[in-house]
Amino acid sequence: MEGGGGRNEQRDVSRIVAAPELARRLDASPDDRLGLVLANGIFDLLHVGHVRYLEGARAEGKRLVVALNSDASARRLKGEGRPVVALPERLELIASLRVVDWVTWFEGDRVDDLLRLLRPAVHAKGTDYTAESVPEAPLAASLGIRTAIVGDPKEHATTRLLERLRAPDAPASGSAPRESG
Description:
By secondary structure, this protein is of the alpha/beta class. The protein has one domain (19-166): 3-Layer(aba) Sandwich (Rossmann fold). Helices cover 33% and strands 14% of the residues. It is built from seven helices and five strands; from the N terminus they run αβαβααβαβαβα. It has a five-stranded parallel sheet. The longest helix has 11 residues, at 48-58. 29% of the residues are buried.
């Protein structure tokens, strides 16, 4: 079936890279590390808040690597029943976004080890944080990594989306559609 997105169609997964391999690539091509931004999260059910967060992260530098929590990490942080979407599918979804250069994953609940390994110029977090409340901020500062708070106000959340799916009478999140400029 031509162009139909059939099951046997080859997928470009070249942007999905294990963190140690990504670190080797960055070491071999130091220019790729200049302006490197690290964003992280679970990205369980992709929504507009995620897209705006990643767009804001990319605007902080030249290249964007997105690190996804493993399934076990997501479960520890969000509880049983999460993630709804398994890690391989979440990786593929995030890798398909044009603002993303690479996608990787991590097993812990924080990205301290990735900050040490990848040494980005910027660690981007969403607006549910402040520069002072980012758990990795002290480590980032000690490594010379700038912490940036990006994205739109936290009006969208996977947890709220799941609640809405379970209770269809709940009001939609967000606001009226934004006009494109």
